[in-house]
Write a structure and sequence with these properties.
Layout: E1 3-7, E2 10-13, E3 18-25, E4 32-39, E5 45-52, E6 57-59, E7 67-72, E8 77-82, E9 91-99, E10 119-120, E11 124-129
Parallel strand pairs: 2-11
Antiparallel strand pairs: 1-3, 3-8, 4-5, 4-9, 5-6, 7-8, 9-10, 9-11
Length: 130
């Protein structure tokens, strides 16, 4: 059974940094997309960053230059390094994933549409105070 477990959230002041981690158990596919979404209170889900199995990455305009998505394949762990955090980054952050057929294109990994990713973690809260 595939499971995504996030950690690393917390409370920081504006300008601070946090690193989120997502351990993917049972997710041992050679062709896939993984990423991070967030949801602020009363708002829709927002795609933040994605990374595919070829190490291509995509970022929302709102986080480009501040956030970095990476993966440690040996630990099967996805990371989101968040720098220069601002109050508008306050949200619940979710790790997401989708397994692709070996022949499938990874072009969908640029998608920030929530239903593209059928596997979701439970979320970790990030709060940034001004």
């Amino acid at each position: 059974q595939v499971q995504l477990v996030e950690s690393g959230g917390g409370s920081v002041q504006a300008g601070g940094s946090l690193r989120l981690s997502c351990v993917a158990s049972g997710f041992t596919y050679s062709n896939y997309c993984m990423g991070w979404f967030r949801q602020a209170p009363g708002k829709e889900y927002e795609g933040v960053a994605t990374r595919d199995s070829a190490s291509n990455t995509h970022y929302a305009d709102s986080v480009k230059g501040r956030f970095t998505v990476s993966k440690d394949n040996a630990k099967n762990t996805l990371y989101l390094q968040m720098n220069s955090l601002q109050p508008e980054d306050t949200a619940m952050y979710y790790c997401v994933a989708v397994a692709l057929a070996w022949w499938a294109s990874r072009s969908q990994c640029s998608s920030f549409t929530p239903h593209t990713y059928p596997i979701w973690g439970q979320g970790t809260q990030v709060t940034v105070s001004s």
